[in-house]
Amino acid sequence: MKMFSAEAHLIVCKSTGGRWRFNLELHATEPQSEGVLLLEAHMDQTAYVPVWLCSSTDEPEPFTANFTPDTPLQFEVKPAKGMLPVRGSASQDEEPPCVVSYTCRDMGKTLKGRLHIQTKGTQYSFDLRGRQPVYNPPNRDDLVARIDNRLRRSHKAGDAQQKKTNYVVENIRALQQSTRFAGAQRPKRGD
């Protein structure tokens, strides 16, 4: 159903001669929500939920999708206009008629909004909830710490065979040998 307001006149006629006229005001209020769309996203990430709707007629039906003015800007719907498929014609591989997205920009806050999808004769309403996923801290009983304080045999054998090297002495010897072959003159600083 769609929201609308209208005036009508009700005229009651009696067969023996009497006529009464009544003015009527008809108000169709906003329809109840079709359901709640819960979108959970981590900080600065976007979550998507497809909205699967079908035409209420035997033909594909054009629709428009929009939010109420109090819906936060973190919610988005695409496409804003499109066609609802005929009931039973949608296959598993087909894309949904519209997709709602939520981008998390606030810590610890559940945002609320409302989505309206309107066709020529029907209006669908969905409550929206956007939040961060619930954090479940790790259970201490599930955590097992293992520390191995023993060396493998291959490491122990390698330590005994490894020769200890004094790199300073080796560098001095290499420098002395290179200067002997270069003509016994040391290079001056600045050359």
TrEMBL record:
<feature type="domain" description="CFAP47-like immunoglobulin-like">
    <location>
        <begin position="1"/>
        <end position="29"/>
    </location>
</feature>
<dbReference type="Pfam" id="PF26579">
    <property type="entry name" value="Ig_CFAP47"/>
</dbReference>
<dbReference type="GO" id="GO:0005929">
    <property type="term" value="C:cilium"/>
</dbReference>
<dbReference type="InterPro" id="IPR058952">
    <property type="entry name" value="Ig_CFAP47"/>
</dbReference>
<protein>
    <recommendedName>
        <fullName>CFAP47-like immunoglobulin-like domain-containing protein</fullName>
    </recommendedName>
</protein>
<dbReference type="GO" id="GO:0060271">
    <property type="term" value="P:cilium assembly"/>
</dbReference>
